[in-house]
Amino acid sequence: MERITSEVIAEKEFTIASRGYNQEEVDTFLDLICEEMDRLNNEIQDLRQKTTMVRPSAPAAESSSVSKEDENKFREILEMAATVKEETIRKAREDAEAIRLKAETEANERLNGLAEEREGLEKEVTALKETAVEYRRQFEELLHAQQEALEKATGLF
Question: Is residue 101 part of a domain?
Fold first, then answer.
């Protein structure tokens, strides 16, 4: 499984489905982010437990300054990890919301375009129906005129 980093999140591209982004793909990616965050939390917890176990076994006088130094380093690492975690989650949420808004906007634009296209087609159909009615009327008039001409011609013979 690929490790989730802020670069991976920043570079992640989702494919666009017919009605926006593929929801399953977005959900899967967000699940991966959550799993990675859980893993980081577990790792932080393990490190905290290890530092707790190391403290009591340190010799009293000589290594206490080294132990404090190590403890400060561990604290700093844990704080950095927590900061990275929070920033990654915040960025992932922002990206997910931006993706959702973009997909929603694109879907609305597409629906509006389709509604306009439908209106245009309905007008065309109405115009074609009117034209068909007019052609039929003209054809009936022509047919009637031909019938009258035939009747007159029949009287001549």
Answer: yes
Q: Return the pLDDT at 36.
A: 82
Concatenating the DSSP letter of every residue in 84-145 gives HHHHHHHHHHHHHHHHHHHHHHHHHHHHHHHHHHHHHHHHHHHHHHHHHHHHHHHHHHHHHH
User: What is the per-residue pLDDT for 1?
Assistant: 60
154 in a structural domain: no
Tell me the whole-structure pTM to 2 decimals: 0.39
Structural domain for 12, as ranges? 6-122
| Residue 103 near residue 21, CB atoms below 8 Å | yes
Residues of the chain with pLDDT under 50: 58, 60-63
**How many domains in the chain?**
1
- Residue 17, strand partner residues: 20
Q: Report DSSP letters for 1-37, one per residue.
A: -PPP-HHHHHH--PPEETTEE-HHHHHHHHHHHHHHH
